[in-house]
Each structure stands twice: as C-alpha cells, then as structure tokens.
Amino acid sequence: MQTVSSISLAGGQGKTTMVLFVARLLAAKGHTVLAIDADPQSSLTTFLGFTVEPDSPTLLEVLKKQVDTKDGIYETRYNNLFLIPSDDALDTVQDYLAGSGTGALTLGRRLKSVAKLFNYCIIDAPPQRSQISLTVIGASDGLMIPVEASVKGLQSLIRTLELINELKEEDETFGGRVLGVVPFRDRWVGLRRTTESESNIESMKQITSQWFEEDLVLPSIRESEKFKQAINRGLTLHEMGQEDLAYPIEVLVDKIYSLDGKHDKS
Ligand SMILES: Nc1ncnc2c1ncn2[C@@H]1O[C@H](COP(=O)(O)OP(=O)(O)O)[C@@H](O)[C@H]1O
Ligand SMILES: [Mg+2]
C-alpha cells in the first residue's frame, strides 16, 4: 500500500477536492483504495456521501486504538473505494497524540495491519499545523500540496514546506516525498489565464524552487463550477464529460504510480 496525503496549511486550498477526485480515479482504474478523513470538519466524509452512525468507530477510535483498524473501515457507494470517516469529535485526539511522545508515527502504525488489503491510501489532512497533521504527514510516502492561486495560497505553501522540512530535519527516517504542488482555482478568461493567477503561479514556482531542484508545480486545477457540481452529484469529472478538467488529477495519479513504479491497470 502506498500512502499519499493532501496537505496545505490553510482552509479552502483544495485538499479535500483533490483527495476525492484522486481516490475516485484510482478506484475507477481498478485499484483498491482506502480514503481517510483526518479533518474534524469531515468534508471528505460528506463529499463521499457517507453518514457516521452514532457509536460506530471513526478515525478517532482507530488512532486511540480503541478498535482494530479494520473495524473503522467502511464501504462507500463507489466500487473499490473504502473510507475511514471522521466527525468533529476527532479534535479530541490531539491531546492523545501529543501525550504519546511519538504522535507523528501513530497513524502509520495503525495502518500497518490493513496495508495488504489496499493498493493505495489517500488521506485528507486538516488545515492547521496540529498533532493530526503531523501524524498524517508521518504516515505518508507521498505528499500532494494543493495551493489556491492567491496570496493566501502562497502563504499556505510556505507554511506547508516549512513544516515538511522541520519534520525531515527532526527525523532522518521520514520518507515522505513531495509529489507536487497543484495550483487550485486557476482563473482563465477565454483562452487567457488572468494576470493574478499567472503571477501567483509564477510565485509558486519560485518558492518551490528554493526548496527543491526539480520543478514540482504540476498542471493546475481550473476555477470551475463543474467541480462542485461533480461533488454534489457524486460523479467523476470523466463521468461529467470534463476530460480537460480531469487532466491535473490524471497527472497526480501518474505521480502516485511513480512511488512504486507501477503502471496504469486500465
Ligand atoms: N475547481 C474548482 N473551482 C472552484 N471551486 C472549487 C473547485 N473545486 C472545488 N471547489 C470548491 O472550493 C472549496 C474549497 O475546496 P476544498 O477542497 O474543500 O478545500 P480544503 O479541503 O483545502 O479546505 C469547496 O467548497 C469546493 O466545493
Ligand atoms: Mg478540506
């Protein structure tokens, strides 16, 4: 199982959107996918049309080891796609993780027992620097960083890269690789990118090049109502007939394949 998380330290950056479409595309290609909602706001759980029943285990109970990990995993309405859901009670896990001393390793440890059951695990992270975001990054082989094409987005990018770097410096065994930075809500008018998007994406390239030698800024997710419509209707972008809009998701899936050298099944 390869574990990939979507991380960006601000709200509205496209984290949940990216997890949803990447997980659904991998599942549609025939891979078995475990999606994990690690944000107490539980948008991913909602986007997947899943309702947490009272007293049924969620990521909270899995992290606290109150249940076996497999008992926190549910089928979704989509083939090959499974979910460890969350609800707002997940926030209470922060103290538990902080108190354990090795909180950054907790999620990775809990996933070991189910690693043989899934090809990919795709995790949605919360928008702040917290014990939860640390354990999500600690569990990841690959990191996808969505960044809104705005000033707020650039600040989020810098905070996120700083956090990843701190983790690398603290722990040499940390193996999470940045798969790419994905500009989110890139605005175009007709055939032209707006000057605002243009300059923000240029800044993303400059910031990223200060940390990495390769160009990690990937094809952008365009500003489009189609994404919201697809989310609300439970459809993939391909099912909506939006092949062009799906291109950045395809590129991400290829990056995820590059983690294990595996190729497209379909
Ligand atoms: N391509 C898009 N263009 C405009 N808005 C989008 C697009 N894709 C998703 N959205 C909307 O943007 C909002 C923020 O995205 P989300 O993925 O929830 O960000 P985060 O998880 O980082 O907070 C959501 O309400 C979502 O419906
Ligand atoms: Mg979110």
3D structure, described in words:
The structure is a single chain. This protein has 266 residues and is an alpha/beta fold. The chain has a single domain (2-260), classed as Rossmann fold (3-Layer(aba) Sandwich). Helix content is 41%, strand content 17%. The protein has helices at residues 15-28, 43-47, 59-63, 93-99, 103-111, 131-138, 151-170, 195-209, 225-233, 243-260, and strands at residues 2-6, 33-37, 74-75, 81-84, 120-124, 142-148, 177-186, 188-189, 192-193, 221-222. Strand 3 and strand 4 (81-84) form a beta hairpin. It is globular, with a radius of gyration of 17 Å. The chain binds adenosine-5'-diphosphate (ADP) and magnesium ion.
Structural topology:
Elements: E1 2-6, H1 15-28, E2 33-37, H2 43-47, H3 59-63, E3 74-75, E4 81-84, H4 93-99, H5 103-111, E5 120-124, H6 131-138, E6 142-148, H7 151-170, E7 177-186, E8 188-189, E9 192-193, H8 195-209, E10 221-222, H9 225-233, H10 243-260
Parallel strand pairs: 1-5, 1-6, 2-4, 2-5, 6-7, 7-10
Antiparallel strand pairs: 3-4, 8-9
The structure holds adenosine-5'-diphosphate and magnesium ion.
